[in-house]
Amino acid sequence: MASNNTLWSRAPGKFWQVLVAALVICAGLATYFGMDGMADSSLATAGEPVCEWETVGSYNHDADAFTQGLVWHDQRLFESTGQYGHSTLREVELETGKVIRKIDLNERFFGEGIAILNDRVFQVTWRENRAFQYDLETFEKQKKFKYPGEGWGLTHDGTSLILSDGTPVIRFLDPETFEEQKRITVTSDRGLIKNLNELEYVDGAIFANIWQTGIIVRFDANSGTVLNWIDTRDILGPRVAPGVMNGIAWIEERQSFLLTGKNWPLLFEVKVDCPH
Ligand SMILES: [Ca+2]
């Protein structure tokens, strides 16, 4: 009886331990990818092939910069940083990581994505429903805007500002008023893709960091249909970063991307080759 009791008391315990461990692993994977219906480390599908990439340069990056927006414009690098009381808009020297100039946001605002359109810098904020417009050369604040919902990433297609807010929806906004012009929903073979963060528009497609994953998704800017995946989870190699990857800037003249993350000490220049 004693051994039976032991057996019976142990077996259910082990079963539940295994079950709980399996559930934790599944939940962890789902959280890791931050996507609905995606708990598989294999990113590629027939219609959504993975892009190849290689690092062609690395530069110092301010480890105090909680990167939320990254833009290359006219041979210059601009960055937005977040956190209440630490949010900034800055111009950075690529080769050294040195901050050339910056302005601090009021401590009530958590800085998020930036875009530069018509020599104006636009910066959104996380949960404050406010965006700011600055003069490109002086960073003098020119205008404020209100918009509904959260602000995460920002880019533009030459006409509209393009905003992510952590949901699968991407909004196109009038840069004069921040009025919504249209919206798309980012959809893959696996379902809706949420947690879209920093953005970069390139030739009819939008690249987006997926929050907390190290993975970049490329989707059609008209339809929201996912085109490709870029798995940059090992870009840091053996180094340990304090924060997640966030920050994509396209350098047209070099046909390369700049990639970094929140409080990363490095910023990488990367060539990306997507199958289509
Ligand atoms: Ca960007």
Q: Layout of helices and strands, plus pairs?
A:
Elements (H helix, E strand, L loop, with lengths): L1 H32 L18 E9 L6 E7 L2 E6 L6 E5 L6 E6 L6 E7 L2 E6 L4 E6 L5 E6 L7 E3 L4 E4 L4 E5 L6 E6 L1 E2 L2 E2 L3 E7 L2 E6 L4 E6 L5 E6 L13 E7 L4 E6 L4 E8 L3
Antiparallel strand pairs: 1-22, 2-3, 3-4, 4-5, 6-7, 7-8, 8-9, 10-11, 11-12, 12-13, 14-15, 16-17, 17-18, 18-19, 20-21, 21-22
The protein binds calcium ion (CA).
Calcium ion binds next to strand 2, strand 16 and strand 20.
- Average pLDDT, all residues: 88
Which molecules are bound besides the chains? Answer: calcium ion
Order of helices and strands: HEEEEEEEEEEEEEEEEEEEEEE
Instruction: Please name the fourth-level CATH homologous superfamily.
Output: TolB, C-terminal domain
Give me the secondary-structure category: mainly beta
Global shape: globular
Question: Which second-level CATH architecture applies?
Answer: 6 Propeller
Helices, by number, come to 1
Q: For the largest sheet, list the strands in their spatial order.
A: 1-22-21-20
Alpha-carbon distance between the two ends: 68 Å
CATH topology: Neuraminidase
What portion of the residues fall into strands of 2 or more residues? over 45%
Give your account of this protein's structure.
The protein has one domain (53-273): Neuraminidase (6 Propeller). It is built from 1 helix and 22 strands. It is globular. Strand 16 and strand 17 (205-210) form a beta hairpin. The strands form 6 sheets. A 4-stranded antiparallel sheet has the order 1-22-21-20, with no helix packed on it. Strands 2-3-4-5 form a 4-stranded antiparallel sheet, with no helix packed on it. Strands 6-7-8-9 form a 4-stranded antiparallel sheet, with no helix packed on it. The chain has 276 residues and is mainly β. Residues 1-41 have low confidence and may be disordered. The chain has one helix at 2-33, and strands at residues 52-60, 67-73, 76-81, 88-92, 99-104, 111-117, 120-125, 130-135, 141-146, 154-156, 161-164, 169-173, 180-185, 187-188, 191-192, 196-202, 205-210, 215-220, 226-231, 245-251, 256-261, 266-273. Calcium ion is lined by residues 70-71, 155, 198-200, 248-249.
